[in-house]
TrEMBL record:
Domain of life (superkingdom): Bacteria
Biological source species: Leeuwenhoekiella parthenopeia
Identification of the protein by name: WbqC family protein
InterPro entries hit by this protein: WbqC (IPR014985)
Family annotation (Pfam families): WbqC (PF08889)
Length: 215
């Protein structure tokens, strides 16, 4: 089955599972940019619970809508340094952080102007870490609705206000004894904790509850 999704910032586990289980991924890049979405944010697990990491995006100042493809990162903030430091603090004791650290480090020490280009880079990195080679394409026009018999429209997964559609199977986490299991984090949490087992976790995840929740 084909799926259409938004390219988000180190996507959450559910979104990543949908991607690795899709025969073909169509990334939506022709929509209007939406605030408070996973386009520019992710959540990680820390000793104090869930932590939001947010990429600052420039305001257009025109009052009109801007396309996601035109969204520019506000580089006057040291957000990359802050995000990398947060990841190191949260996951340096995880089983596989050091194993993947060298692949991730350049993303937080290279300047990016376009949010879309940065998100593409994070997705490429995720697929490399998972040893997955999906068939990916990008939209050339915006389409409001898709025929579910031809393509799964999963663009709603980028909505940060949307309540989780399903319960995720527990996996070991760094601070689980203190915080309890925290679901629906960035797939980085899964990768740092499960390492090479992550792809099996994602491919075995039953997405039928997600499909039913779309109705």
């Amino acid at each position: 089955m084909k799926s259409v999704l938004h390219p988000t910032y180190f996507p959450d586990i559910l979104t990543t599972a949908a991607m690795v289980q899709s025969e073909q991924i169509l990334f939506e890049v022709c929509d209007n940019y939406q605030k408070q979405s996973y386009r520019n944010r992710m959540y990680i697990g820390t000793a104090n619970g869930r932590l939001l990491l947010n990429i600052p995006v420039k305001h257009t100042g025109t009052g009109g809508h801007k396309k996601t493809a035109d969204a520019q990162i506000e580089s006057s903030f040291l957000w990359q340094r802050q995000h990398w430091r947060s990841l190191v603090i949260a996951y340096r004791t995880s089983p596989f952080f050091e194993f993947y650290e060298d692949e991730l480090h350049p993303l937080f020490h290279t300047d990016y102007e376009s949010l879309l280009e940065f998100n593409k880079a994070t997705l490429d990195c995720i697929f490399e870490l998972l040893d997955s080679t999906p068939n990916t394409h990008y939209t050339t026009t915006y389409k409001m609705n898709y025929d579910d018999s031809e393509i799964q429209d999963l663009r709603m997964l980028a909505d940060a206000k949307r309540k989780p559609e399903m319960t995720l199977p527990r996996y070991r986490q760094v601070f689980e004894e203190k915080t309890g299991f925290i679901p629906h984090l960035s797939v980085l949490d899964l990768i740092f904790n499960l390492g090479p087992e992550s792809l099996s976790y994602l491919t075995d995840l039953d997405l039928q509850p997600l499909m039913r929740s779309k109705a």
